[in-house]
């Protein structure tokens, strides 16, 4: 009896959902579902290994470990305090100053780390106790910190954008990392402005104080340290957007510069700190690479079963109006963002939803920002909510209190999400100037 594609789709989908509900690691879920479906389709199991190796056998993947190591080195190099002081000089004396300093510092550190969790850990450890000491409620300090940390997944140079570019290579033949980085600048600034406005309104309403002024005699050193700390961003963005280096080469330069900055200039990275930095980097990289390899096998099975085409036809059968389909996709992504982490969402949903959005006229660059923005918002929502849990742990508040304090900022994010979904200029204006 010949295998049926319909039965194969059921095996793939049911095994995926069941294993995911049983809290298996997503990479294992993808691998096991692929193997089970291939066994039914009578495809040799060796194909799983071939597709997995092919998925990670790409030179461009080297950019991811370099970006991750850069963030780890800068985090260990004591940049959080310097960035907070740098932001304080420019916005600290505004109403609700510490709230604005928090948001701006998170954006700057997010530029460097590309990780919302690292952003929350580093900036939160500095800003949350400082805000509480100055009279801000602990739950509000947590809410503004975790919301602001989401900027790190959108603003360049984000390794999530690099990952999306690599996944796109298997769907549409590739997409420029430089254009993706340029596309993230305006949404990142728009998100920062929105978070600052919400923070100022709440701070004024509750009578929260401004930040303490930094003595003018410290201005030169604080500004110098701030610019020096942000130099890795200029190295990465300038070299990639200017066409001077690939993402991999720019990442390698940033690693060398970040090491020299922490080890020789600030002298806060000691020889004993290097091994923990390497271990953390390797753990994250191994997780991401295993996920990419497993998703390549999973995507191969989906292609055989023509699942992306069927999903596209399913969406179009509901409505042919683009804005309705985009709304449905955003709702789906927000719901999936609650139980799924960022990397699995990118590698799993890009091959499925990108063809749908392209058929309706959305550019792959714009879709990438929509997908990653949704995935970032998912980091704030239970049951996974990694950023939410980390922020609540630092601020010593309950998850319920942290969630309630985060909601005004979350609603502001939804406004930004709608803008980047329905107004292409927010994401597509800058990329047109990139080579």
Summarize the structure.
It is built from 21 helices and no strands. With 435 residues, the chain is mainly α.
Provide keyphrases for this structure.
single chain; 435 residues; mainly alpha; 79% helix
Q: How many distinct beta strands?
A: 0
Could you list the spans in which at least 5 consecutive residues all have pLDDT below 50? Answer: none
Q: Based on helices, strands and strand pairing, what is the structural class?
A: mainly alpha
Radius of gyration: 22 Å
- As a percent range, the share of strand residues is under 5%
The SSE order reads HHHHHHHHHHHHHHHHHHHHH
Relative helix content: over 70%
**Backbone shape:** globular
Distance between the termini: 53 Å
Biggest sheet, open or closed, and with what strands and sense?
Answer: none
Query: How many structural domains in the coordinates?
Result: 1
pLDDT averaged residue by residue: 83
Helix count from the secondary structure assignment? 21
Provide structural commentary.
The chain contains 21 helices and no strands. The protein has 435 residues and is mainly alpha-helical. It has one domain (59-294, 307-433). The chain starts with a helix and ends in a 7-residue tail after the last helix. The mean pLDDT is 83.
């Amino acid at each position: 009896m010949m295998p049926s594609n319909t039965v194969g789709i059921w095996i793939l989908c049911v095994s995926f959902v069941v294993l995911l509900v049983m809290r298996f690691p997503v990479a294992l879920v993808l691998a096991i579902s692929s193997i089970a479906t291939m066994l039914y389709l009578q495809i040799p199991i060796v194909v799983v290994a071939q597709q997995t190796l092919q998925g990670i056998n790409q030179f461009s993947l080297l950019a991811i470990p370099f970006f991750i190591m850069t963030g780890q080195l800068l985090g260990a190099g004591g940049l959080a305090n310097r960035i907070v002081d740098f932001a304080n000089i420019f916005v600290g004396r505004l109403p609700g100053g510490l709230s604005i300093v928090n948001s701006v510092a998170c954006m700057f550190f997010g530029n460097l780390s590309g990780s919302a969790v690292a952003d929350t850990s580093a900036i939160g450890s500095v800003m949350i106790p400082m805000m509480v000491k100055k009279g801000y409620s602990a739950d509000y300090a947590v809410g503004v910190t975790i919301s602001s940390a989401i900027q790190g997944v959108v603003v360049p140079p984000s390794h999530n954008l690099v990952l999306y570019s690599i996944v796109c290579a298997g769907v549409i033949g590739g997409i420029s990392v430089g254009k993706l980085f340029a596309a993230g600048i305006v949404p990142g600034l728009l998100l920062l402005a929105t978070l600052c406005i919400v923070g100022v309104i709440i701070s004024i309403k509750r009578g929260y104080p401004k930040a303490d002024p930094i003595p003018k005699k410290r201005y030169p050193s604080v500004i110098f340290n701030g610019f020096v700390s942000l130099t890795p961003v200029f190295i990465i963005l300038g070299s990639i957007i200017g066409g001077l280096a690939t993402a991999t080469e720019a990442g390698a330069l940033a690693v060398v510069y970040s090491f020299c900055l922490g080890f020789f200039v600030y002298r806060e990275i000691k020889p004993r700190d290097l091994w923990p930095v390497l271990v953390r980097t390797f753990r994250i990289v191994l997780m991401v690479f295993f996920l990419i390899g497993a998703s390549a096998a999973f995507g191969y099975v989906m292609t055989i079963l023509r699942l992306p085409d069927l999903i596209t036809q399913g969406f179009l059968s509901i409505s042919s109006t683009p804005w309705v389909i985009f709304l449905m996709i955003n709702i789906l992504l927000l719901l999936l963002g609650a139980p799924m982490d960022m990397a699995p969402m990118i590698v799993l949903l890009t091959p499925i939803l990108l063809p749908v959005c392209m058929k309706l006229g959305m550019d792959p660059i714009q879709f990438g920002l929509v997908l990653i923005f949704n995935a970032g918002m998912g980091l704030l929502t239970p049951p996974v909510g990694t950023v939410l849990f980390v922020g609540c742990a630092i601020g010593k508040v309950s998850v319920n209190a942290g969630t309630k304090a985060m909601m005004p900022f979350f609603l502001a994010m939804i406004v930004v999400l709608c803008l980047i979904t329905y107004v292409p200029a927010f994401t597509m204006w800058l990329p047109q100037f990139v080579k």
